[in-house]
Design goal:
This protein has 291 residues and is an all-alpha fold. It has nine helices and no strands. It is globular, with a radius of gyration of 21 Å.
Amino acid sequence: MLSLPLNLNFAAPHDGTAMVYAGLFGLLIGSFLNVVIHRLPRMMQREADNYLAQETRQALPHQHPYNLLTPRSACPSCGTPVAAIHNVPVLSYLMLRGRCAHCKAPISARYPAVELLSAVLSAVTISQFGLGAHGLAALALVYFLIALSVIDARTQLLPDSLTLPLLWLGLLVNLWGLFAPLHEAVLGAMLGYLSLWLIYWLFRLATGKEGMGYGDFKLMAALGAWLGWQSLPLILLLASALGAIGGIALILLKKHRADQALPFGPYLALAGLLMLLYGPTWLSRLTFGLY
């Protein structure tokens, strides 16, 4: 196994200063995550439209470049580019009172919510792992999970352009056993995918309906690659319980119909996040209890 000095911690866990810096950094990353959440599904739709046009031999319309960097952020209602002073995480939203500076159209509260969530989880993650390799790798996992959760909640999509890099990144960091030995990470990726694939097909054979999407399989595989195969049963149990609670709550609040599909990705991501932060403690207690 490779042996590189990746276990250096520049700030110990629970270092208050490091947590503050991590929170500020999380605010900035949260602003970028909002761009990913907003644009990535549109980029996927554009690619699908272009592919369909090519297959049907239709002329492709002229399209301006559209990616995570181009064009500049603009108001969805009036198209006015967002000035730099109005692009400060959370503060700009508060100063503008949640409205566009030009047309006064309301700005979704999702933007500051994602920024605050990113800041809080960044601080919590660094409090657990410190500012060494463990902490930086854990932050990467947290940011991927935030983006995937919100995209799936909004569109019921878990893009391959996020789930597959997340899976490979998990195997990469575990070359040095940061979160699990490499062989457990490889087994985690395989069993993570196959577990939900098997549940999908059993449910489909029993009911004739699709209970989840293939993106869920890939996300579960990615979590297995990061956290090892031993974490998978608890992740699945937690995700199922959280999904049931969330679904019942949404139905009672009349924000979701009982026959309407419920995205499973956010609950998988939340379960994965809980296992990242607290899983080793839970697993050790469970193991101790068994013996």
